[in-house]
UniProtKB/TrEMBL annotation:
<dbReference type="GO" id="GO:0016491">
    <property type="term" value="F:oxidoreductase activity"/>
</dbReference>
<dbReference type="InterPro" id="IPR036291">
    <property type="entry name" value="NAD(P)-bd_dom_sf"/>
</dbReference>
<protein>
    <recommendedName>
        <fullName>NAD-dependent epimerase/dehydratase domain-containing protein</fullName>
    </recommendedName>
</protein>
<dbReference type="InterPro" id="IPR001509">
    <property type="entry name" value="Epimerase_deHydtase"/>
</dbReference>
<feature type="domain" description="NAD-dependent epimerase/dehydratase">
    <location>
        <begin position="9"/>
        <end position="139"/>
    </location>
</feature>
<dbReference type="InterPro" id="IPR050425">
    <property type="entry name" value="NAD(P)_dehydrat-like"/>
</dbReference>
<dbReference type="Pfam" id="PF01370">
    <property type="entry name" value="Epimerase"/>
</dbReference>
<keyword id="KW-0560">Oxidoreductase</keyword>
């Protein structure tokens, strides 16, 4: 899949942040992109995609839902590469046969992979999962962490976390408590890593994409030092004494190069927030 590629690819969960940025890059490379969304009638979700450079000529939108995975087959038909970024987030047990989002995701993945096999055109599937699927929590149920995190680490299936509706209050503490540190990667590098995995002639397995694993105290210290004009109000810093050694060079060993380091990524995040009027 080179810059002059005319590959036909499918990207699920197209309205998500990573998927939208990935679609933009794929269109820039000349790919024909089949993109799926839950509701094609939602202009807030479809308009940004239709406005991407090259979208008028090479972007085709499909309606598909993880809770009805058979709907993905038309989008997959004829594609060489399938990027699976969709995930079931809005779960209503009254309107579905699935007990929870995990059960829905697993069944949808099984159905979609069968569709890829039936297509006779799909050469590779790149599935994007939450980083919380990999953690150095001890598998024997004991307290604390392993000394490292890499692609061999899995979050225990019975691990749960109670939360309320205010997701902002939940995500950072949950990540820090779950994996000891918070993995960091620039969106440009994340998208390039997806494309890298599609382009390699022989690649398979699981890859963690992170240029660094600072803990929450590292993030606070950085922002306080670099941006003294920004007031940071925190009741506490969760996981400030937790630090897990990351061994996530598997992608790099295969030839992938990160363009942005930890410092640059954090700077870009603040500049983006300022442009959006969030700071």
């Amino acid at each position: 899949m080179t810059s002059s590629s005319s590959s036909r690819v499918c990207v699920t969960g197209a309205s998500g942040y990573i998927a939208t940025c990935l679609i933009k890059k794929l269109l820039q490379r000349g790919c024909v992109v089949h993109a799926t969304l839950r509701n094609l009638g939602d202009e807030k979700k479809t308009a940004p995609l239709r406005e991407l450079p090259g979208a008028a000529e090479r972007l085709v939108l499909f309606e598909a839902d993880m809770y009805d995975a058979d709907t993905f087959e038309p989008a997959i038909a004829g594609c060489e590469f399938v990027f699976l970024l969709a995930t079931p987030l809005q779960h209503d047990p009254r309107s579905t046969k699935y007990k929870n989002t995990t059960e829905a995701a697993v069944d949808a993945m099984r159905i979609i992979l069968q569709q890829c096999e039936r297509s006779k055109t799909v050469r590779r599937v790149i599935h994007t999962a939450s980083v919380t699927a990999a953690s150095p929590l001890r598998e024997d149920g004991g307290e604390g962490y392993k000394d490292f995190i890499n692609e061999s680490c899995w979050t225990p299936l019975d691990h749960s976390h109670s939360y309320n509706n205010t997701m902002v209050d939940v995500l950072s503490p949950f990540h820090s408590a779950l994996i000891g540190s918070v993995p960091l990667a620039h969106i440009e590098d994340i998208c390039e890593a997806h494309i890298f995995c599609a382009e390699q002639p022989s690649i398979a397995g699981r890859f963690l994409c992170a240029v660094g694993y600072p803990n929450m105290q590292d993030y606070v210290d950085h922002f306080v030092t670099k941006y003294p004009e920004i007031t940071i109000k925190l009741k506490e810093v969760v996981g400030k004494d937790v630090r897990v050694q990351a061994d996530t060079n598997k992608l790099v060993d295969l030839g992938f190069k990160y363009k942005y380091g930890v410092e640059e990524t954090l700077i870009c995040s603040v500049e983006c927030a300022k442009r959006l009027g969030l700071l």
